[in-house]
Every structure is written in C-alpha cells, then in structure tokens.
Amino acid sequence: MYSAYGLNYPNYLFFSPVDQAYTIGFLGIRAQYSISSLYQNKNKVAAGKLRITGARIQQKAITDNVMQDLKSYLIKYQESLNRIAVNKRSIEQAQMNLRIVNTKYFNQLSLLTDLLDADNLFVESRFNLIKAQTDALAIYYHLLYTAGKL
Fold first, then answer.
1. Which of 83, 96, 113, 123 could potentially form a cystine with 132 if both were Cys, beta carbons 3.0 to 4.6 Å apart?
2. Is residue 48 within 8 Å of residue 19, measured between CB atoms?
3. pLDDT at position 3
4. Distance between terminal CA atoms of the chain?
C-alpha cells in the first residue's frame, strides 16, 4: 500500500506553463513478484521435503535405538531377577552346610578350617544376594529412564 500527495507550482500539465498552483494525490497497491522465485521455490520445496524425509529417518532410527535399549534392559532385568532367586537358594544351601559343619565341629568330627570355610561361604552367598539385588535395582532404574518414566 502506498500513497502520495503534493502541491505543485507552476502548473506544468499544460503546454505553456500556467501561473497557478495545483494539488495532486494518489493512492494505490503495489504488487511485486520476482520471476526467478518460480525456479527457486521448486528447489526450496524439494530441499524442504528432503529435510523432512531426513528428519523422519532420523526419528525412526532414534526410536529403533530406544526400543532396542528397552529390550536389552528388560532381558538384563529378567536375568538379574533369576540371579536373585539363585542366590536365595544358595544362601539356604550355605546355611544348611554351616549347620552341618558346625554340628560336626562341636562333635569333633571336623576341623576349625572347615567351619571357617562354611561360614565364609555363607557370608559370601549373602553378599552375592545383596549385590544381585542392587544390580537388579540399578537395571530397573535404567529401564525406567530409557522408557521415559523417570
């Protein structure tokens, strides 16, 4: 949108200039279009489509990586739960072994080193259970973080 207004003296609209002031004004709309943009728009549209396609491929790759991480953490979590069950069974067996060796030691049928070995095995199996539980908890929180829940 543009406009102009002017007061002109002398009047040059006639062949011989007239000694008279005149005013003139106009109002209009200006439209302008570059012909070269016809060629550039096609290229810009094509480049935009390529960027969108690239972004979709990148999004799909990231989604695939996240899903793969989720599956691997889920498998690790299930393995750690199995390790906890195995370690609980190991504690039961070590405790039973400690009772048997303790009874043998007090009946003077085994040596002190056997009793210490049985006690060491019991303590080690309890330690392994605690380690398996903390590993399972760490894997669980990694799983939640990867899933976006944490």
1. 83
2. no
3. 76
4. 56
Give the total residue count for the chain.
150
Q: What angle do CA 15, 21, 23 make, to 5 degrees?
A: 100
- Please, which residues have CB within 8 angstroms of residue 117's CB and are 6 or more apart in sequence? 101
Specify the pTM.
0.64
114 contact partners, CB below 8 Å, separation of at least 6: 101, 104, 105
Q: Which two tokens stand for residue 4?
A: 């102009």
Give which of 123, 121, 136, 120 is closest to 85, Cα–Cα. Answer: 136
Domains identified in the chain and CATH numbers: 2-147 (1.20.1600.10)
β-pair partners for 2: 28
- pLDDT tens digits along 94-140: 999 999 999 999 999 999 999 999 999 999 999 999 999 999 999 99
